[in-house]
Amino acid sequence: MRYQIDKKIAFIGSGNMGEALIKGITGAGVFKNKDITVTDIRRERLEHIRRLYKVNITADNRDVVKKADIIILSVKPQIIAKVVKEVKDLVDRKKLIITIAAGVTINSIQDMLGKKARIVRVMPNTPAIVREGVSAIASGNAASEVDIKMAEKIFNAVGRTVIVEESMMDAVTGLSGSGPAYVFLIIESLTDAGVNMGLPRDVSKLLSIQTILGSAKLALDTGEHPGKLKDMVTSPGGTTIAGLHALEDGGLRAALINAVEAAAKRSEELGKKG
Ligand SMILES: NC(=O)c1ccc[n+]([C@@H]2O[C@H](COP(=O)([O-])OP(=O)(O)OC[C@H]3O[C@@H](n4cnc5c(N)ncnc54)[C@H](OP(=O)(O)O)[C@@H]3O)[C@@H](O)[C@H]2O)c1
């Protein structure tokens, strides 16, 4: 296997998102497994990660930062300050820090590490587990083009990436960060809808999931405006327009706009608290 990046990478915190990224980058062969080290305060998490992904593990955050070129901060937002303070004397211009913590600004980390610290902030989402995630990448003033390219390479291994201004991160969190939960709610609702119309639950669930997956793939592959793709299914006086009428009547469009707005505002509030 050809490895894409010849550097040492560390993950501080290997919970849900840390594991998703480790699974993706080991699966894609972005780094050599011997160059990946993972820390956590939970011994059983570390054993689980080593067993599944054959990477190095340690409970020592300082040791791993000392040796790594790239450090991914993948602990909960409220733990970030504690971890950064623990390792700050070991971070110099040679090391790239990538934070995935929701609501934690690049500035707040630079306040602890110094204005010259190379920091990139990324907002991934959970479909990264199956390498179909989407991650938004924003960079601090001390990070270079090469640093952004590095983040793109890492996060492209678990899906797709977009580059945004950091000021857009709350909107990204409300849309794609929280978005998988909206889609799961829609899948659950469509499944219930099929059951309501007499379909067996397993049949209804598969029809719902594959309809969403297939529609998403069609939109992505063709690049067509979703309105045009919708019109392709909607014949005059037919079944689909009757269903669409009911959805508009129920306010689906406004409900989704409100959901993203509410989640983005909550992200902003949590960021100010932290
Ligand atoms: N999950 C998502 O959908 C998602 C999406 C985008 C971004 N994120 C971001 O990703 C980050 C991680 O989220 P998550 O859902 O993966 O959280 P998580 O499952 O709680 O994972 C964090 C892991 O770090 C461990 N930990 C706590 N303190 C530590 C320390 N001092 N040193 C090393 N490890 C430590 C935790 O152990 P304990 O459980 O014992 O504390 C836990 O195993 C968060 O900042 C979140 O905002 C998550």
Characterize this entry briefly:
The chain has 274 residues and is an alpha/beta fold. The protein has helices at 16-28, 43-53, 61-67, 77-87, 106-113, 145-156, 169-177, 179-196, 201-222, 226-232, 239-249, 252-273; strands at residues 9-12, 36-39, 56-58, 70-73, 96-99, 118-123, 133-139, 159-163. It folds into two domains: 9-170, Rossmann fold; 179-273, ProC C-terminal domain-like fold (Orthogonal Bundle), CATH 1.10.3730.
Describe this structure as you would to a colleague.
This protein has 274 residues and is α/β, with parallel strands linked by helices. It has two domains: 9-170, NAD(P)-binding Rossmann-like Domain (Rossmann fold), CATH 3.40.50.720; 179-273, ProC C-terminal domain-like (ProC C-terminal domain-like fold, Orthogonal Bundle). It is 55% helix and 14% strand. It contains twelve helices and eight strands. The protein has helices spanning 16-28, 43-53, 61-67, 77-87, 106-113, 145-156, 169-177, 179-196, 201-222, 226-232, 239-249, 252-273, and strands spanning 9-12, 36-39, 56-58, 70-73, 96-99, 118-123, 133-139, 159-163. Strands 3-2-1-4-5-6-7-8 form an eight-stranded mixed beta sheet, with helices on both faces. The longest helix has 22 residues, at 201-222. Residues 12-13, 15-18, 39-42, 45, 61, 74-77, 79, 82-83, 100-102, 123-126, 177 line the site of NADP nicotinamide-adenine-dinucleotide phosphate (NAP).
